[in-house]
Structure formats: C-alpha cells, structure tokens
UniProtKB/TrEMBL annotation:
It is found in: Cell membrane. This is Lipid II flippase Amj. Its main location: membrane. The keyword Membrane applies. Pathway: Cell wall biogenesis; peptidoglycan biosynthesis. GO terms for biological process: cell wall organization; peptidoglycan biosynthetic process; regulation of cell shape. The keyword Cell wall biogenesis/degradation applies. Belongs to the Amj family.
Length: 263
C-alpha cells in the first residue's frame, strides 16, 4: 500500500466513524434531555467529517492521475481498500457506541456550563482527564445484540438507510473510476459525484431523518421507552454498516453507469 492510499483509508475511516458517531450524540442528548445542545455538538463532529472529506478527495484524485500515467491495474483493489476502511470506521463506532454515549452525555453537560466549544475544550481537555479516560469505557454486551429485533422499526427505513449509505460511500469513488474508464469525458464523470451524493442526501433528509427526529421527540416526551430508542439507533448503525458493505458491490456497476451516462 502506498502512503497516499494509507492516508485516504485513514481519512475515510475518520469520516465514517464520525458520521456514525452522530447517533451516539443524538442518543446522549435524548438521555440528558438536551437534544438541541447535542445537535450543536453533532454539527462540530460533522465539520470534522466534512473537512476530512475535502482532504481525502484531493488525494483520491491524485490516485486517478497516477493510474493514468502508470497503469490502473491496482485501482479497483485500492478503491476496495478505501471502501473497506469505511466499513471499519463504522464498525469502530458501533463497538464504541456505549462509551461514546456516556462521554457525550458528560460533554453536553459541560458544554451547557461552558457556553461555547472553545471553552469546553479548555476546561475538558487536560493530561489528567485523558489519563482517566479509560474509566469511561463501556463495552457493548451480547444482551444488546439480542435486543436488536427489527419489530417496531420499519424495514423500509433500514433498507433505505443501507441503500443511501452505500450510494454515499461509493459515489465519489465510482465517479472517479468512471473518469479513468472514459478519459475523454474525465472532468464530466468526476463532477457527477456531486449529483450522486446530492441525491443520496435528499433521500436521507426526506425519508430517514424525519423518522429519527420523530422517535427522538417521542423519547424526550416519554411516549417511547429507552429500549425502543436504543434499538432504533442500534439498527440504524447496523444498516449503515450493511450499506458500506453494499458499496463494494456498487463500485464497478456505478462506474459503468456513470461512464455510459457521460458518454
């Protein structure tokens, strides 16, 4: 693996870990009764994700340039490694989910007192507190997995979340691979990634987010129990993981469709 590929994989891992972590922040907000504060904290985490995404795009584009001059016999394999790092980042967030919910509950409480994120960082980040971080570890238990039955959660919501995640994960990579397949339309193909991710974002915003927001409000008002709320976020994370695995199958068909479309 080249240095640029390792860097892209690390950035992809960070992006998908951060985005999956958004579920932990929202659940922490529900449990603490401060959903609005948690959403502001979620925005900061998403900023880290989007910044990593911009840096990643630069290096991924460089891989296409190298493939055109040196031959692209490893390009498909390299892209599959990148998609694999997306799955790994999602899996890491799932395993750390109980820990992150506990930590974010404390951060939300501190943020309310501090009043701003810079003040929160000044008060919360210290060598002594970093040493005590291990005390906050909450490992997932098998009982949590047994409770994750689909009953009560719309199957179409989970399928749509998996499909949208798969499209979002592979959109840029398929567009870049298409630009390698049809070099005479390279710019047109690479720019189509924005349209693909835009469609995925619209589907997520219109069909998935409202249901999550509705259940979050019901949990805050006490109409829905903690067990059902935990199950919803657990299943959404697993469907997101399934979406990153689905992206492996979508890479080449997506690139072929984009190449045909721009031609």
């Amino acid at each position: 693996m080249t240095t640029s590929l390792i860097l892209v994989c690390v950035l992809t891992l960070i992006i998908h870990a951060a985005e999956t972590m958004g579920y932990a922040i929202r659940l922490a907000g529900i449990r603490s009764g401060k959903l609005a504060v948690s959403l502001s904290l979620s925005g900061i985490i998403m900023l880290v994700s989007r910044t990593s995404n911009m840096v990643q795009a630069t290096f991924t584009g460089g891989m296409i340039d190298s493939a055109k001059t040196e031959g692209g016999h490893r390009l498909q394999t390299d892209f599959q490694y990148i998609i694999g790092s997306a799955s790994l980042g999602t899996l890491v967030s799932i395993l750390l989910f109980p820990t992150m919910v506990f930590i974010f509950m404390r951060l939300i409480a501190h943020l309310e007192v501090a009043g701003s994120f810079p003040a929160l960082v000044r008060e919360s980040v210290s060598l002594d507190k970093l040493k005590r971080a291990s005390q906050n570890v909450r490992l997932p238990r098998w009982e949590m997995l047994r409770r994750l039955r689909i009953g009560g959660i719309p199957k179409r919501l989970l399928l749509l979340n998996a499909a949208v995640t798969g499209i979002y994960t592979v959109g840029v990579l398929s567009a870049l691979y298409a630009s390698y397949l049809v070099p005479e339309h390279a710019i047109k193909a690479s720019q189509s990634s924005g349209l693909i991710n835009g469609i995925a974002t619209v589907l997520l915003t219109v069909f998935v987010d409202p249901h999550v927001a509705l259940l979050s409000d019901k949990a805050l008002s006490g109409k829905v129990g903690n067990a059902e709320t935990n199950k919803m976020f657990g299943l959404l994370m697993l469907s997101r993981l399934a979406g990153t695995l689905l992206a492996q199958l979508l890479l080449l068909p997506g690139a072929a469709i984009i190449a045909w479309w721009v031609s």
